Amino acid sequence: IGPVTHVWQTWNNCGPATVTMALSTFGRAESQAAAVNFLKTSKDDKNVDPSELVSYARARGLNADWRVGGDLVILKRLLAESIPVIVEVGFNPDGKDWMGHYRLLVGYDDGTARFTAYDSYLAPGVNVPQPYDKFDSDWRAFNRTFIPIFRPAQAAVVVAIAGSADTEPQHLRALATASRELAENPKDAFVWFNQGMSLTSLGRTAEAAESFDQARLLKLPWRMLWYQFGPFDAYLAEGRLNDVLTLANANLAQTSDLEESHFFKGRALQESGRFAEARASYLRALAANSRYVPAYHYLSTLPN
Known about the structure:
There is one protein chain. The chain is α+β, with helices and mostly antiparallel strands. The chain has 14 helices and 6 strands. It has helices spanning 14-24, 32-39, 50-59, 72-80, 132-139, 155-162, 167-184, 189-201, 205-217, 230-237, 241-254, 259-271, 275-288, 293-300, and strands spanning 63-64, 85-91, 99-109, 114-118, 128-131, 146-150. Strands 1-6-2-3-4-5 form a 6-stranded antiparallel sheet, sandwiched between helices. It is globular and about 60 Å long. It starts with 13 loop residues before the first helix and ends with a helix.
């Protein structure tokens, strides 16, 4: 797929840079700065959610979907239809600690068993080879999230390849993958986490909490809950407020610029009847991201 205009990311901006590259495949001369202004309220914002990248692409007149439970066949079929795909992967750059990262897939070669990617951080940035096995190992850390960017006229093609954009069938597919992988390797923390994420989305929060417990016992990267929040939702639903507070406080001990962690801490405090502290946590969430709608909503539910 191409031509593609490569963009090196500025600070904390792999999401804005990657979606800018994706739009360039459609001849759009967008800037990283424009994406940053749309997607972030602070340069210190550590996480741009896939749904936010979808919103940006749609605001620019294209279409996009955020899906989970992908596989290599789906990715290759989308690319064969000239549909660029943003993927979210685990990343250890230059020996640094694990973090989440977006890449843009633009091609594949079954002869060499690798995808071709554009990367906003990793040199040379252009046509970075992604061997299938290594790619899938990195991709599994995010329940194989993928974001196809396409013209509205291609919507039926995307559904034919990737299935419905509805949440339930995606998570049932991802859950089946996790079950199979856990049968092969029950000590994979990422797969336990994926199982928990899909169970949470399916409303099976008691089972999800058990899956997250296993993932935590097996040790997850310390940045894991900067990007994915299923454990907070599952533990809240199961009344495990101390676990929510423990996880939120662990995140916030590393950095204070995590609106989601402030928010979920507020939720646990509110459920505990600690309303003044909950209010303070919601306000800290909004200080980190003034557009964070859930914090506004739960602030309005606190007693005066």
